[in-house]
Design goal:
Largest sheet: 8 strands, antiparallel
Radius of gyration: 26 Å
Helix content: 40-55%
Length: about 375
């Protein structure tokens, strides 16, 4: 019994200090994650102008490129054209003029939103601007390019420990475990909420913390699952350019293959499938990448800018543990029930953080009073 109580006290200290030290980070991290469950709907609410389309009829890709080119600043180069799948705007992404600054994180792009039936410019904004992009940066890296992603990953690791220790502390010391499901286990409301919410959110929070850590440390977890993971930056190691270098590559000013020709050659392979996006050749990889809708997954076609040869791009694996971890964490195509659980799993940790701090502060007060009384008695 004494050993069990000593272990309980040890777990309490671990649980307490994880909560106190990380509370200031856990609260914005969890709330931003809750908001991003429905990020597309949120973007429509906060940016209504870019979604004020007049219809779904599509013009030729050249019409959108011409309209975007007029709206861009001198020297900006079109990098990607994306056609809507759900009745939204056509989006043209352009790389900034000059050499991209060598700083952590993806380079900033200029995003031009166009009305599909008219090619009218709806909005021009930076790729990292707006509430939704801010929330993505906050949740993924705490708005700290470079080191932020690792910090978020370690928070996920500590949150898994917190879930385990929290369940240990929730378990009633006397009687059956069902006693722990009672609401009024304590005279203070915040303590009761902490016990109750902590129990019900423990398992979903553990899953979200695990998947978040998996996303933050793909190399480490890739070795465990046996899946290779390409580095995000810092040298391709002989396996081709890494994602960071690809993102910073400059689109060619005047590709040898015109846009309509590249799309036409890609259609020779893809057939009549709906066009989804076109990525321009760059100074790093001189290929057009034309993507069409496919059964279950997009179909990518590579067009060599120098020869015009068209080849099907290697299909991205649709399975795999890493992909499932991201889907579970984001709620993508996981159904409304799991998305609701993720949303609640983002709100409740913030409540646990606040109630935990209140409980700690109150304990400091009564411990100080108890120490003062003992000191007075001793005197």
């Amino acid at each position: 019994m004494m050993r069990k109580m000593a272990m309980r006290r040890a777990w309490f200290q671990v649980h307490k200090w994880i909560g106190l030290i990380l509370a200031i980070l856990i609260i914005p991290l969890s709330l931003s994650g809750a908001a991003l469950v429905w990020d597309h709907a949120l973007d429509k609410i906060v940016n209504p102008t870019r979604y004020a389309v007049s219809g779904t009829t599509l013009l030729s890709p050249d019409a959108y490129v011409a309209a975007a080119a007029i709206a861009l600043k001198h020297g900006e180069r079109i990098a990607v054209l994306t056609l809507p799948e759900d009745g939204g705007p056509v989006v043209v992404s352009a790389a900034a003029a000059g050499k991209a600054p060598q700083r952590p994180g993806p380079p900033q792009r200029t995003m031009v939103y166009l009305d599909p039936p008219t090619a009218r410019v709806l909005e021009i904004s930076p790729s990292n601007g707006g509430l939704v992009r801010f929330l993505h940066g906050l949740h993924g890296s705490l708005q700290l390019p470079g080191v932020g992603r690792s910090i978020v990953g370690w928070i996920g690791v500590f949150m898994m420990v917190s879930c385990f220790t929290g369940l240990w502390l929730w378990w009633p010391t006397v009687g059956r475990w069902a006693r722990g499901l009672r609401y009024k286990r304590h005279r203070n409301t915040d303590t009761n909420l902490h016990y109750l919410f902590g129990f019900w959110v423990a398992l979903p929070l553990f899953v979200l913390s695990l998947t978040g850590a998996w996303i933050s440390f793909p190399q480490f977890f890739g070795k465990i699952s046996g899946e290779a993971s390409r580095p995000r930056g810092g040298g391709g190691g002989g396996g081709g350019p890494d994602r960071a270098a690809m993102a910073r590559a400059k689109p060619l000013v005047k590709p040898a293959q015109p846009l309509d020709v590249a799309i036409g050659k890609a259609r020779g392979i893809a057939g009549a499938a709906p066009l989804r996006s076109v990525a321009w050749p760059t100074d790093l990889t001189a290929d057009w990448t034309v993507t069409f809708a496919g059964k279950g997954a997009p179909v990518g076609i590579k067009i060599a800018d120098d020869t015009g040869d068209a080849t099907a791009a290697p299909a991205r694996p649709q399975g795999g543990v890493a992909r499932w971890m991201r889907r579970i964490h984001d709620g993508t195509d996981m159904g409304a029930l799991w998305q609701a659980i993720i949303f609640i799993g983002g709100i409740l940790p913030a409540v646990l953080g606040v109630t935990g701090v209140i409980m700690w502060w109150r304990a400091r007060g009564w411990k100080a009073e108890l120490a003062a009384k003992r000191k007075a008695r001793a005197a």
